[in-house]
Amino acid sequence: MNQVNKKQNPIRPVSIAPMLDWTDRHCRYFHRLLSPNILLYTEMVTTGALIHGDRERFLRFNKEEHPIAIQLAGSNPSDLAECSIMAEDHGYNEINLNCGCPSDRVQKGQFGAVLMENPDIVAKCIESMQKATSLPITVKCRIGIDEQDSFEFLDHFISIVKQAGCAHFIIHARKALLTGLSPKENRSIPPINYPRAEEIKNKYPELTFSINGEIKTPAQIKEHLKTFDSVMIGREAYQNPYILYEIEREIFGTSEDTLLSREQVARAMIHYIEKQIDKHDTPINAVTRHMMGLFKSQKGGKKWRQVLSTLPHEKGITPAQVIEEALKRTST
Ligand SMILES: Cc1cc2nc3c(=O)[nH]c(=O)nc-3n(C[C@H](O)[C@H](O)[C@H](O)COP(=O)(O)O)c2cc1C
Asked: Model pTM?
């Protein structure tokens, strides 16, 4: 069954990373307008939230978001199996297991990066998830944690999880420090180590490896694609989303004629926001907060941000008024 699904899910050369509080469905819809081909990941969703919380809210996505992967956080094999079935029923294209998040909250739940110390648990989770669903199951991990940062440590993790049937690893090429650093600091300290990820890739040519961490430009992506099967972009896609236009053109080879300008994307979001208000009573700001970077490094980019940070909060304002005013101020 997995074979069939892998055929249906060809590896996309670029994806946008799971980012908690950032890559929600509104953000992903916006990213999809900019890039028709990139693979999108949800924010991390804990098994507890899906099993005991408002499941529909966590699983909901727009059909335009395909291809879309859900990232699960958990360490209980049967809970993960249950959540995998939910994800498949909702139409996700891939399920990713979080073995890379270092936050305290995540460590207390015994999932995320701490799982790298327990590859046998991860293997049990993967086996159980694969039995429950025909979707590809992938793992996102670091290159090590704390003092355990040798090649052998990463190799041991990959070899055990591979035996359980995981064929695709996304490597954030930096070790996680589980004490003393905030999650934010853990994204810049210690320095990135691509060669370590490359060593692993070379050892397991039969596996698929995506590389992640501080990759920002199409030129860097092209360079990494010489070694890795795909590249995952995090902060740059969020903070400078129009880079997706360049990625679409340069990596996916999409014709400029079919891609949208910044203004076209902004106007396409008006209709989306109106629909969200109608269906879910969504505040305008819940969507526009993800669009702040659309005019980054452009003349008027600061005015765009200013309007988007203030106008959506005014009583009675409509999405069209917010976007049109922001566009007007940006161009003058
Ligand atoms: C705001 C924010 C939230 C994040 N949340 C998650 C998450 O839910 N799951 C995860 O695996 N990684 C998470 N990450 C890490 C990113 O997926 C990525 O690995 C990291 O930012 C490095 O990539 P970059 O240098 O391209 O940003 C988060 C990063 C940011 C900035």
From this structure: 0.95
